[in-house]
Amino acid sequence: MKKWLVITVLTLMVGCSSTPSELVTYLLPSGNTASAAHHGNDQNLLIVAPVDVASYLADMGLVYQVSPTEIVEARQSLWAEGLSKQLTRRITNDLRQKQTGFWPTQLTSTLSTAGIPRLQIRINRFNGVYTGVAEVAGEWMLIDAKGELQTVHPFIFSVPLAADGFAAQVEALSLGVDELTTQVAVSLK
């Protein structure tokens, strides 16, 4: 009995003395703003609705696909802010830089949306994959000022990871968002 107690206490001490993994938080990098598009007062508004993310992406942990059927959510590598908010802000800012036909703005409670075209984006995948890529997939829809659907575009972008780890995953995901906003901007011209 005494031997069992000593082993238990030693096990607890070793477990308590090991330092837990450091909590790391990430923000999606801002897009390339080097080539700013000209924006005048004559531009029409474009409402960028809050990006809708799949439920498994709505928590704060970064997501990684470890097999064809299994995903894991990181416990120590977290988004510093909700993914939907980050994506909505990033997409709005990118579109301001990549096209001149519209002035994209985020939907707010004080903004009347009547008669203003709207961009809606659904993200179904926003994760690293065991094959060494980051995937950004979903669909985007453009709804005209009358509320009629103009176009629906499914998308999937696979961006190779430059290195191992969540920092590289976030950078690759950012490049996927860049590809998405380029696709949307070309359609808006």
UniProtKB/TrEMBL annotation:
InterPro entries: ABC_trans_aux (IPR005586). Residues 26-185 form the ABC-type transport auxiliary lipoprotein component domain. This is ABC-type transport auxiliary lipoprotein component domain-containing protein. It comes from Shewanella violacea (strain JCM 10179 / CIP 106290 / LMG 19151 / DSS12).
